[in-house]
Amino acid sequence: MSTSSKQTVMVVEDEEAFIDALVVGLQREGFAVEVARDGAEALSNFDKFNPDIVLLDVMLPKVSGTDVCREIRKKSQVPIIMVSAKGTEIDTVVGLEVGADDYIVKPYRIRELVARVRAALRRSSGSGSEVFDSSTSVSVGDITINTEQHLVTVRGQLTKLPLKEFELLYVLMANAGRVMTRDTLIDRVWGSDYYGDTKTLDVHIKRLRSKVEVAPSSPTSILTIRGLGYKFEKSS
Ligand code: CA
């Protein structure tokens, strides 16, 4: 990525008041800004805009933000920050499930948004390489994770995980038997400059459990250590 050229933010938003504030605020911070005013426009212009990051409103005319996210993910690992009108858990879970990297709730301060954008861009340019050690395969119980091939096998079944879930599972498994504090996990997976809601960690844990646990509601592999964090159980 050239440092001299501006990074492009694609703003997908239908409310003019938000669009104006975002365009002005992001341009002032040195970003180039492209605007799509509905979901269909976002998808048809994605290749042309070729954004470095996408700010994606959840409630959009024509094609919803979550569907746009899903479509973009089929062809691109560009960082996506979902913007939702309400901080409901549903929005959060759905947003992260469809492959978004982060989410922010309206109304937000432009300064916070810019910090999130910069953090997401930094994480994506590091391509997660700090997360993985040189070892490429870790097995604990009936779960195997292979960082070289980006594969997870759960009880003999190949399981596909989005990048952040994959990295989180790797960090937990590579430290099986050890309690990992919330801060450590957020540091390792999202970076020490992560400004996001710490609920993001819990949402990812929940998603992981639904994929690796026999009974996600009474987990035996990914344990909650109350007041501290999480632990991947060694003997499971
Ligand atoms: Ca909207």
Structure in words:
The chain is of the alpha/beta class. Helix content is 40%, strand content 21%. The longest helix is centred in the middle third of the chain and has 16 residues, at 110-125. The chain is elongated. The protein binds calcium ion (CA). Calcium ion is lined by residues 14-15, 57, 59-60.
Quantity of strands, as a count? 12
Proportion of strand residues: 15-25%
- What is the chain-wise order of helices and strands? EHEHEHEHEHEEEEHEHHEE
CATH topology group of the largest domain = Rossmann fold
Distance between the termini: 43 Å
Low-confidence stretches: none
**Spatial order of the strands in the main sheet?**
2-1-3-4-5
Looking at the structure, what is the overall shape?
elongated
Major beta-sheet overview: 5 strands, parallel
CATH class of the largest domain: Alpha Beta
Superfamily (CATH H level) name of the largest domain: Response regulator
* DSSP helix fraction: 40-55%
Summarize this, please?
The protein is α/β, with parallel strands linked by helices and 236 residues long. The protein has helices spanning 16-28, 39-49, 65-75, 89-97, 110-125, 163-174, 182-190, 199-212; strands at 8-12, 32-36, 53-57, 80-84, 102-105, 137-140, 143-146, 151-154, 157-159, 179-181, 222-225, 229-232.
Task: Provide key terms for this protein.
alpha/beta, Rossmann fold, Arc Repressor Mutant, subunit A, 4-stranded antiparallel sheet, 8 helices, 12 strands, binds calcium ion
Present the secondary structure layout.
Layout: E1 8-12, H1 16-28, E2 32-36, H2 39-49, E3 53-57, H3 65-75, E4 80-84, H4 89-97, E5 102-105, H5 110-125, E6 137-140, E7 143-146, E8 151-154, E9 157-159, H6 163-174, E10 179-181, H7 182-190, H8 199-212, E11 222-225, E12 229-232
Helix pairs in contact: 2-3, 4-8, 6-7, 6-8
The protein binds calcium ion.
Calcium ion (CA) binds at residues 14-15, 57, 59-60.
